[in-house]
């Protein structure tokens, strides 16, 4: 495999430079060849970033800030031609080795940039460092998640935690703004401590927090209640899968029925689901009255409608599965009772037939036991369809034997009398 030519260093490039991926020879290149080229460029950018940061160890705040800003200006300009490639990769279900290497290289650069920019925040001269830490806390609470988490209980907890952090940050905001505004950006010799660009950045971040916080708090509230509903639905579905599986024994069904009563009657999960869904619908209505949330309104309406349908279905299934388990248990009791009594009666009848004096069996008695044998078959057939393969085979064989005994007894009784 050919190694692409080395690209120039990202930091020291003129602002009009773009990576080799945009050059005409590669416009017709294969996706993997393009991925190789961009990966090489990103690896060089990563090395250059580390080198620039390390070279300013012990230097002034302005020096460190200048190195990162210089890198960012060049990097942001050069990355434009490769963004469509990265976007296309996100939609690709199966990445090649070259594409995975590109994704890792991109993640490495962006994570290192995030780390250094955070370091620039917390290393600001006091008391701006505390202001920057406050901003980082607020921004973390305001950050949008890229993916929908599957652990709904944890997601609901995180949303609650973020709401608490956000409320705390907003209470502290006036004092933080005052600290920022009162900061004297000069040292004892009249030199600027923090670059103007950095001060402007902090100001923009204050404005962004102020503007975003109000509506993001509503989003977090919606997220909390949405994941609460999804968590309850998940718990119910997990139990339903267990309760609807083929049954093994009557004792096992009794245990499952006890679990049902524990979940429904004691823990009141269906009632909790209804309450959580009601709260979710209340919160979702805020989206219809806030223009800042209008872009999310359609999705929210669809999500709530789907959860209403899923909840109604789950409630119906809970009732149905209880009825099924009740019928299975009743059938098992009926089957066991009929089987034991019929087997005992048939054995007694067989012994009577083995003696010289054979008492006549009245027809009404045979009819009565015939009715019991029919109930046995009805219950047995139902259980065979409701149980796991092994139990079903045992029941089938058990039923076959007793039916054979019954047929032989009826045949003898009819022939002899």
Query: What best-fitting shape do the alpha-carbon axes yield?
Result: elongated
Question: How many strands appear in the DSSP assignment?
Answer: 0
CATH architecture term of the largest domain: Up-down Bundle
- What class do helices, strands and sheet pairing give? mainly alpha
**Beta strand %:** under 5%
**Biggest sheet layout:** none
Residue windows where pLDDT falls under 50 for at least 5 positions: 1-8, 13-18, 20-26
Provide the number of structural domains.
Answer: 3
Rg measurement, Å: 37 Å
DSSP helix count?
14
The N- to C-terminal Cα distance equals 95 Å
Tell me about this structure.
The chain is mainly alpha-helical and 417 residues long. The chain is 78% helix and 0% strand. The chain contains 14 helices and no strands. The chain has helices at residues 24-27, 31-55, 61-79, 83-90, 97-122, 128-142, 152-181, 196-243, 250-266, 269-284, 286-289, 294-353, 363-386, 389-416. α7 (152-181) packs antiparallel against α8 (196-243) and α9 (250-266) runs antiparallel to α12. The termini are far apart.
């Amino acid at each position: 495999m050919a190694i692409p030519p080395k690209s120039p260093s990202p930091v020291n490039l003129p602002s009009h430079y773009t990576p080799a991926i945009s050059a005409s020879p590669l416009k017709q290149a294969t996706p993997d060849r393009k991925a190789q080229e961009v990966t090489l460029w990103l690896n060089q950018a990563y090395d250059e970033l580390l080198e620039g940061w390390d070279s300013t160890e012990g230097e002034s705040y302005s020096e460190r800030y200048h190195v990162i800003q210089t890198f960012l200006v060049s990097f942001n300009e050069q990355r434009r031609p490769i963004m469509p490639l990265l976007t296309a990769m996100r939609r690709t279900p199966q990445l090649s080795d070259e594409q995975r290497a590109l994704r890792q290289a991109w993640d490495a650069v962006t994570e290192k940039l995030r780390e250094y920019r955070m370091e620039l925040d917390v290393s600001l001269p006091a008391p701006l460092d505390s202001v920057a830490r406050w901003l980082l806390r607020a921004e973390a609470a305001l950050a949008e998640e890229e993916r929908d988490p599957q652990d709904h209980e944890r997601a609901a907890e995180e949303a609650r935690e973020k709401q608490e952090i956000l409320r705390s940050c907003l209470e502290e905001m006036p004092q933080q703004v005052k600290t920022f505004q009162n900061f004297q950006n000069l040292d004892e010799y009249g030199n600027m401590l923090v670059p103007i660009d950095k001060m402007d950045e902090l100001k923009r971040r204050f404005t962004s927090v102020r503007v975003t916080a109000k509506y993001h708090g509503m989003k977090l509230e919606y997220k909390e209640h949405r994941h609460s509903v999804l968590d309850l639905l998940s718990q119910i579905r997990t139990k339903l899968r267990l309760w609807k599986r083929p049954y093994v024994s009557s004792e096992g069904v009794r245990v499952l029925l006890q679990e049902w009563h524990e979940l429904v009657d004691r823990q009141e999960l269906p009632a909790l689901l209804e309450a959580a869904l009601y709260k979710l619908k209340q919160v979702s209505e805020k989206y219809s009255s806030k223009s800042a949330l209008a872009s999310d309104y359609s999705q929210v309406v669809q999500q709530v409608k789907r959860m209403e349908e899923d909840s109604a279905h789950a409630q119906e299934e809970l009732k149905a599965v209880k009825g099924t388990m009740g019928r299975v248990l009743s059938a098992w009791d009926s089957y066991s009772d009929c089987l034991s009594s019929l087997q005992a009666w048939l054995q007694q009848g067989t012994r009577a037939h083995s003696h010289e004096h054979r008492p006549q069996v009245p027809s009404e008695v045979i009819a009565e036991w015939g009715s019991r044998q029919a109930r046995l078959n009805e219950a047995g057939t139902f259980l065979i369809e409701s149980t796991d393969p092994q139990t079903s085979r045992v029941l089938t064989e058990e039923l076959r034997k007793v039916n054979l005994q019954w047929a032989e007894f009826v045949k003898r009784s009819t022939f002899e009398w």
